[in-house]
């Protein structure tokens, strides 16, 4: 009887022990990981998320399967990450627009950028680039482009991957400072912005460099300047904004890798360690640079602090843009 009672007591404790073990993340990953990308295919966030996912899959031994969930300046995809089970099987890239801009832009958000995510590490950083279609834009320098844009009777238009993105805020700030009559035209991503410029339907963009390198290399888009503090390694002939005559215009885009709030520390630590290895690999740094970005790494704490430091400047840029979303 004692043996039977002991056996039953042991069995009754198993259901209680199993969830605790699952929550620890000690056996993670033992199935595919869903990577929610809040932007459409072909844009910089998508391209760089695919590069990182490829490496995480190789290092952690399970498929990292991308799922594009674009819309509402990334809010649809971010909501999907925030509301997923915090078991380590849903992650994704969260850009500066998602973590440091959205709360100043939207009256209501379906997530809290400061509370609803487990931040793993910074993922990448890249400048924006001022581009215009070669076929429809005569000026060859940024000062000449500014003069040309000011002289346009009906003003000019600039594109972005959505309201509140750094492309939108950069374009609005540029037009405000240079006294250009500029009309913002939001798109779903660079895959739509580029054809609009090449068709002559859009004047220019100040968008993430990563999406534009191939078209710049082909000569179909003119690149006037980059918004980084120094010239970009793979495009040494393109000046910085300061060198091109526009001072105090250093604005870089960045991205962090996140999961839902409450993700097990063991999972965060495993992914963070893998990302550190990726960032330390010279071959991967070259691959990121070829696409227009710098592969970065940080502790989770430093990534959270970085997002917080950016918010006052971005709040002011949102104010200048006049953007407000419900």
Automatic annotation (TrEMBL):
Q: Name one Pfam family in it.
A: TctC
Please report which protein family the annotation says this sequence is part of: Belongs to the UPF0065 (bug) family.
User: What is the protein's species of origin?
Assistant: Paracraurococcus lichenis
Q: Where is the signal peptide?
A: 1-22
Q: Which keywords are on file for this protein?
A: Signal
Q: What is the name of this protein?
A: Tripartite tricarboxylate transporter substrate-binding protein
Highest rank taxon of the organism: Bacteria
């Amino acid at each position: 009887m004692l043996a039977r009672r002991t056996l039953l007591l042991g069995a009754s404790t198993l259901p209680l022990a199993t969830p605790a073990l699952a929550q620890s993340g000690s056996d993670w990953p033992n199935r595919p990981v869903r990577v929610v990308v809040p932007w459409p295919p072909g844009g910089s966030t998508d391209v760089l998320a695919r590069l990182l996912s490829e490496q995480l899959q190789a290092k952690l031994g399970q498929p990292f399967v991308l799922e594009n969930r674009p819309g509402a300046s990334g809010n649809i995809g971010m909501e999907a990450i925030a509301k997923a089970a915090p078991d380590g099987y849903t992650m994704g890239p969260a850009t500066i627009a998602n973590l440091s801009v959205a709360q100043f832009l939207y009256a209501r958000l379906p997530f809290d950028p400061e509370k609803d995510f487990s931040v793993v590490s910074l993922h990448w950083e890249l400048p924006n680039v001022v581009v215009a279609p070669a076929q429809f834009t005569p000026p060859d320098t940024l000062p000449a482009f500014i003069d040309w844009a000011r002289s346009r009777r009906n003003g000019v238009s600039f594109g972005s991957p959505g309201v509140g993105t750094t492309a939108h805020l950069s374009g609005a700030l540029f037009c405000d400072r240079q006294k250009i009559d500029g009309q913002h035209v939001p798109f779903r991503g660079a895959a739509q912005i580029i054809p609009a410029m090449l068709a002559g339907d859009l004047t220019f963009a100040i968008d993430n460099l990563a999406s534009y390198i191939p078209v710049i290399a082909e000569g179909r888009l003119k690149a006037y300047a980059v918004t980084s503090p120094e010239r970009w390694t793979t495009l040494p002939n393109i000046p910085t904004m300061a060198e091109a005559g526009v001072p105090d215009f250093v604005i870089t885009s960045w991205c962090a890798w996140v999961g839902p709030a409450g993700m097990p520390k063991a999972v965060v630590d495993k992914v963070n360690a893998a990302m550190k290895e990726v960032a330390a690999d010279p071959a991967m740094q070259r691959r990121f640079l070829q696409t227009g970005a710098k592969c970065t790494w940080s502790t989770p704490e430093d990534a959270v602090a970085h997002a917080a430091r950016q918010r006052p400047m971005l709040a002011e840029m949102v104010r200048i843009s006049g953007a407000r979303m419900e």
